[in-house]
Amino acid sequence: MSDEGEFAIIRENARRKPDAEKIMFYELKKKKTFVGLLLALLLFGGAGHIYAGKIARGIAFVVPIMAALFAVFRLDGVSQIRTGNLESYLIFIPLSLMLILYIYAMWDVTKVIEEYNQKLHIAVFGEYGV
């Protein structure tokens, strides 16, 4: 189900509920930024996006991070750096790509969760809220 369909159902159900139930429903349904950041940090970068409901965006982060990780192991970076070959420093390209993607994924997951919570708030309480 798309986000718009989900929020339309929430909007229809929230119209019939008193304010106290709306507040409780909103607090139970909203996504926590801390959880999204923790998932992005401890698992792969896209795990926080998957938690926030953006599965395609989460997979779009996971695939390049996995590819960079595969390249690091494929280049056998640890043993090559010890030898000091010029080619051994190619390992820093996928490592830096992976680090940049992790940082961007953690920044982006906060935006995605805030956007989700804002849409949820509008669906439950209306434009101006309680």
Strand percentage lies at under 5%
Question: Ends: how far apart?
Answer: 27 Å
Task: Bin the helical content.
Answer: over 70%
Shape: rod-shaped
Based on CA atoms alone, the radius of gyration comes out at: 21 Å
Give the tally of structural domains. 1
Summing up helix and strand content along with how strands pair, one would put the structural category as mainly alpha
SSE pattern: HHHHHHH
Query: What's the total number of strands?
Result: 0
Number of distinct helices: 7
Low-confidence stretches: none
Largest sheet: none
The chain-level mean pLDDT equals: 81
Write structural notes for this entry.
There is one protein chain. By secondary structure, the chain is mainly α. It has one domain. The chain contains seven helices and no strands. The chain has helices at 3-15, 19-29, 33-42, 47-51, 55-74, 77-83, 92-125. The longest helix is centred in the C-terminal third of the chain and has 34 residues, at 92-125. The two termini are 27 Å apart. The relative contact order is 0.18. The mean pLDDT is 81.
Task: Give the topology.
Layout: H1 3-15, H2 19-29, H3 33-42, H4 47-51, H5 55-74, H6 77-83, H7 92-125
Describe the structure concisely.
This protein is mainly α and 130 residues long.
Task: Fill in the keyword field for this structure.
0% strand, single chain, rod-shaped, mainly alpha, 130 residues
